[in-house]
Amino acid sequence: MFLNTLVPINPTPSYSYIVPSTRGRGYVDGSRGPYCLREELETGKAMRDAMKDTEGWVDQVNEHLSIVNEEATQLKTFIRTLSVSDITWKETMIKAKRESVRNKLRVLGWEQQELELSDDLKRQWDRIVDVPTPLTERNWAYLEVKLVSLITVNRSQIPDVHEESADM
């Protein structure tokens, strides 16, 4: 009875990797060929039939990956465009804020010459003013105190032109 359930794998070489077999161990009848159980062969056939449906799977995966790569390239380009536009937006915001601060200081009575600062004071000015935020009343109250102190320090460092011309 046991021998009736064994089937040689040779007529079905495409199943040899799926179906467990004897791999050449001898049997009572003296044969040495690879055999497997009939139900294992049927299971192997069913598995192979199921795998036939996956033959185009590799092509589908490659096609899907090419679409994903193309979309990733487009997304990368879009993100780079956003970062460039973000940089130009920040620069525009800083320029507008700088101009607004200068106008407010002129309204307070400071002259253009007094707003021209030395290099060290200019760096401090830039650190305070060159922040890409809108100039609100609250910001202006903070900025006004800091900037007026920078301008007064700058004024004390530069000798008065009128005094020098009077001495001559």
Secondary structure blueprint with pairings:
Layout: H1 2-5, E1 6-8, E2 35-37, H2 38-52, H3 57-107, H4 112-115, H5 119-129, H6 137-157, H7 161-167
Antiparallel strand pairs: 1-2
Helix pairs in contact: 5-6
Overview of the molecule:
This protein is mainly alpha-helical. It folds into 2 domains: about 1-50, no CATH class; about 75-160. It is built from 7 helices and 2 strands. Strands 1-2 form a two-stranded antiparallel sheet. α5 (about 120-130) packs antiparallel against α6 (about 135-155). The termini are far apart. The mean pLDDT is about 75.
Write a concise synopsis of the structure shown.
The chain is mainly alpha-helical and 168 residues long. It has 2 domains: 2-52, no CATH class; 73-159.
List keywords for this structure.
168 residues, mainly alpha, 2 domains, two-stranded antiparallel sheet, 4% strand, rod-shaped
SSE succession: HEEHHHHHH
How does the helix and strand content classify structurally? mainly alpha
Q: Low-confidence parts, pLDDT < 50 over ≥5 residues?
A: none
Beta-strand share of residues: under 5%
Order of strands in the sheet with the most strands? 1-2
- Shape verdict: rod-shaped
Instruction: Give the terminus-to-terminus CA distance.
Output: 131 Å
Q: What is the total tally of β strands?
A: 2
Radius of gyration: 42 Å
Mean pLDDT: 76
Number of structural units classed as domains: 2
Provide a count of the helices. 7
**Main beta-sheet annotation:** 2 strands, antiparallel
Helicity range of the residues? 55-70%
